[in-house]
Design brief:
Blueprint (H helix, E strand, L loop, with lengths): L2 E5 L2 E4 L4 E8 L8 E6 L6 E6 L5 E3 L7 E6 L4 E6 L8 E7 L17 E6 L1
Parallel strand pairs: 2-10
Antiparallel strand pairs: 1-3, 3-8, 4-5, 4-9, 5-6, 7-8, 9-10
Length: about 120
């Protein structure tokens, strides 16, 4: 059974940083691409970053230059370093097994409980 557990969210002021982690069990992160998604108030869940097994990354325009996705396959963990946070980044953040390439979309439908990020002005 695949389980994904996100952590690292919290409340920060604009311009601050957070580092999210996603611990995978029942699945090896080195097997495929993985991605971060978020659901902000009033919007559908959207893909914001993915990474393949060669370290190639894709970012949504809204986070490009501020967020960095990485994988630690030795720890079966997906990471998201978020810098220069903006109030518009407020939302619930999820990790998932994903498609590779420019279209950041989930595969297989496994989701964790998410981790809440709140950015104040």
């Amino acid at each position: 059974q695949v389980q994904l557990v996100e952590s690292g969210g919290g409340s920060v002021q604009g311009g601050g940083s957070l580092r999210l982690s996603c611990a995978a069990s029942g699945y090896t992160t080195g097997r495929s691409c993985m991605a971060w998604f978020r659901q902000t108030p009033g919007k559908e869940r959207e893909g914001i970053a993915n990474i393949d097994n060669d370290g190639h990354t894709t970012y949504a325009d809204a986070v490009k230059g501020r967020f960095t996705i990485s994988k630690d396959n030795t720890k079966n963990t997906l990471l998201l370093q978020m810098n220069n946070l903006e109030p518009e980044d407020t939302g619930m953040y999820y990790c998932a097994i994903s498609a590779c390439g420019a279209d950041i979309k989930p595969l297989f439908g496994f989701w964790g409980q998410g981790t809440q990020v709140t950015v104040s002005p």
